[in-house]
UniProtKB/TrEMBL annotation:
PROSITE patterns: PROKAR_LIPOPROTEIN. This is DUF5011 domain-containing protein. Pfam families: Bact_surface_Ig-like (PF16403). It comes from the Bacteria. Residues 39-109 form the Pesticidal crystal protein Cry22Aa Ig-like domain. Gene3D superfamilies: Immunoglobulins. It comes from Flavobacterium rakeshii.
Amino acid sequence: MKILHKTIKAGLILSLAILASCGYEDPVGTTKVTYYPLLEMNGSSTEVLSVGDTYTEEGASATEAGQEIEVTTVGSEDVDTSTPGVYNVYYSAVNSDGFSTSQRRIVIVLSADPSAIDLEGTFFRNGNPNTVTRLDDRIYQCNNAGGLPLSDSKNLLNVTFYNLDDTHVYVPFQVDASESGIDVESNIGNIISEDSFNWVLTASAYYGTATRNFTR
């Protein structure tokens, strides 16, 4: 019995020694926390100027976990305040893990000449009315930018738009332009005459890509 007891005791000591020599390994491993970049644009997301005005780049700032990181700006150098049109300035930032974020500023340059075109009034598309109200020279608001039947009231787009130079119109990006929450922006559309204009809307798939022609 003494021999058996000594054998068991020796085996137990050996097992403990082996376990001690193995050390401890974390079965879960190490978890890394990613802090996504936060980008904030200075100033307005849509800036409206007239020919001859000066465009001042207000820039943007970005942080990762509360620490400032680099912002890349593209397009600011292309803003030409001598030519009516629409210019886009893009800001982007990338965190240490390669995740990026971006924002856009729309710069609208209007002709400085008094407009010879007055688009206020009611226009029609497929018999559906779109009432246009003049807010200022070259600045308008309309209540049915897509020219839908008025019975489709939740999807009617109420937007502000601009007469750039008496030959072109533009709807800048606008959030929740309809009761149903549709965001919208147009291409640079055409003023055919004081009684006719058109544009293509970038909105939900509900609107598609058709050219929307309006006439009095």
